[in-house]
Amino acid sequence: MMLQKKLLHVSASQFPPLSVHHSTKEIWIELAREFDSYHLVARSQKNQFEYYTEGNIHLYLIPKIGNKSRWFILSSWLILIYYLKIKPNYILCQSSIFGGLVCIVLKKLFHIPVLMEIHGEEYFRILEGKSIFNKFGSFYIKYIFKNSTKVRSLNSLMTFKLNQNKIFNIVEINNRVNFNIFKLSKSNFEIKSSLIRLVSVGRFVNEKNYLNLIRTLLESDIKFHLTLIGGGALKEEYLKLIKSRNSLEYFTLIDWCSQDELVGYIINADIYIQSSLSEGMPRTIIEAMALKMPIITTDVGSIAGVIQDNYNGLLVSSRLNELVPSIKKLINDKTLRTQISQNAYEDAHFKYDWIKCFQVYRNEILSMK
Question: Hey, what's the torsion of the CAs at 264, 243, 224, 198, to 10 degrees?
Fold first, then answer.
């Protein structure tokens, strides 16, 4: 009898029941396609145990304890019990810090292969930090990565940085964009008025650097309208700054919108801006590439592994002192606007297509021994 293919996926994130549709659920459905059963252990939005099933997907939610992911360092040890119940062939772990250790213990006890993920730049800040906390954290992260069967990198720059830290058991599995959703593309690169329309997508948090973006634009001589989409804790602070400059008409702040509305907001703008202070590899940039947008992004984290300056976008420092000259450069050079947008669009289709990337993803898991 053929052995069933069972995947155990460990995540410190909080999720609702399977009956609630969300973008991450689409990832589970796609990833589960070649497995007989797909088992996800994550944190409940409540302080209780929950279990849901839909098709071949099984969702086990454990008490969140607190709102911070760090509580999963303790509660993740419940995965030992779930492992004995599920008896998976493969383990996928979302975070080396939150849940990674218990997955490595399972690997060593039961000889189960583990694919360890890396998404954010916080790992590299710890690996490169000099404080006692960072030195301990660096030892811990390296132990988890080096004892994993495979470590997932999101692009060549991230791979290079992992290699610098003596981590070599790496597979590159790109972030992806769903062209069934992001199926439109910008077709007209004319700037129709003296008012340049800018758009950015991301949570209203410090890491997105939106306060600095707002200040930089307000202090420039550019006539602009900026649309920020994402919502979050800093919205009132953004509005306070905007109102203090009597500039409400130059900004639109959107907490939430549907995917179709999001696509419309982006392609109706002239330039997509990513002003982040820190990023791993934001999917929002790849989505803007898929929509054939001229992109200006800060050169932080591993973004330079995807955006090459003057080829498929423009790179600026996180201080944003080069942002206004870069906007003017794109305003004044239609050929450049068109060319970097076309190159970004082609890269998105060639490297980041949803179906291709998930096939690589599943194959890398299934080939683990």
Answer: -30
Tokens for 131, please give them: 């404080």
Strands 57-62 and 50-54: antiparallel
User: For the segment 51-92, what is each residue's pLDDT rounded down to a tens digit?
Assistant: 999 999 999 999 999 888 889 999 999 999 999 999 999 999
HSE of 191 in the Cβ direction (CA atoms, 13 Å)? 24
Reference 365, options 151, 117, 90, 153; nearest CA is 90
The CATH homologous superfamily to which domain 196-351 belongs is: Glycogen Phosphorylase B; (3.40.50.2000)
Q: What is the pTM of this model?
A: 0.92
Q: Is residue 50 a contact partner of residue 17, using CB atoms and an 8 Å limit?
A: yes
Contact at 8 Å (CB) between 330 and 314?
A: yes
Residue 15 Ramachandran class (φ > 0 left, ψ -120 to 50 alpha, else beta) = beta
**CA geometry: angle at 55 spanning 49 and 57, to 5°?**
45
* Count of CB atoms situated within 10 Å of the CB of 66: 12
Residues paired with 229 in a beta bridge:
201, 254
139: tokens are 């030892």
| Rg value, the chain, Cα | 22
CATH 3.40.50.2000-classified regions of the chain: 6-176+354-366, 196-351
The yes/no answer on whether domain 6-176+354-366 falls in CATH 1.10.1240.10 is no
Question: Which positions ≥6 away from 81 have C-beta within 8 Å?
Answer: none
* Parallel, antiparallel or unpaired: strands 170-172 and 90-93: unpaired
